[in-house]
Design brief:
The chain has 338 residues and is α/β, with parallel strands linked by helices. It has 12 helices and 12 strands. The protein has 2 domains: 3-191 and 236-260, 3-Layer(aba) Sandwich (Rossmann fold), CATH 3.40.50.720; 192-235 and 263-300 and 319-337, Alpha-Beta Complex (UDP-galactose 4-epimerase, domain 1). It binds serine.
Amino acid sequence: MREKVILITGAAGEMGQALVQELSHDGANNRILTLDLNYMPDEFKGMSTHIIGDILDERLFARLVTQYDFDVIFHLAALLSTRAEFSPELAHRVNVDGTLALLKMAAEQSQARGRPVQFIFPSSIAAYGVPDLETKARDLRVREWDWNMPSTMYGCNKLYCEQLGSYFSRHYMQLAVNRPVMIDFRSLRFPGLISAFTLPTGGTTDYGPEMIHAAAKGEPYACFVREDSCLPFMAMPDAVRSLLQLANAPRATLTRDVYNVTSFSITAGEIRERVLAAFPGAEIDYDIDSRRQGIVDSWPAGLNDKAARRDWGWEPVYDIDRAFDEYLIPNIRQRYQN
Ligand code: SER
């Protein structure tokens, strides 16, 4: 008999770590299988069965499906936006081929078990491509269907995989097989995420978290975008909460496959001011990287998350003040004092 598990890919990444922690402490006795190219940090011992592996490794999946019954898949593994611009073909393989392989595996599992497999997919503000700064300043709450013209490989990958997920949940193999494929695909478009405990790698919103962590460490920081660059952000606990809230929402209440979620919009200059207020000696200046600036300029300054609020009660716990004053600054301060 195969063991029923929650599968988390990219589990050693920022969101993965926060999600594993939440799922292993929620009292539901979840059996978690984590997959990543990297080891989980030591403090995660016992929280999951961890497999070091590549989502592109077909033989690995062929073996895993004989052993495990995937009830829910959180597919978090991806190359982020800046990293992807340096290796676009690799990004396409990981972000698109990897997602396709997982969807295919989920489809086969749903046929074998005769029940749906839930597939949760984090997407991103990178799915948007706002044409110019005037439009960005004017259109402060973009809706899910606005400006779906990404300017990065990562954004193209995310936008396409949202579509792929919807396709798998409605049409995949419908003509060809008599055992139905049942994929319950749900996706969230996240703003920039900031964690007090981990740092992202290879993203373009990284100046936010990097600035705060550097100041707490007493290291100088050069922000790679202009001070007036505005993006939506969210504290990591809210991101994890939204993933789980969407996963737990009754299917009948959902009117879309892909939902915007956000918390607060803030400029790089305003992040700097908040960081300086908390760490008065911090040395933060600007050293603009025009290519990364171009990416940030193409991402919206804010998201309209009305549908998520209406359909499944989304509401961030951490607004801008609580995110900085109650979550980020105290936890980051303590982290580096220790
Ligand atoms: N934080 C991501 C990045 O910067 C966007 O989803 O690539």
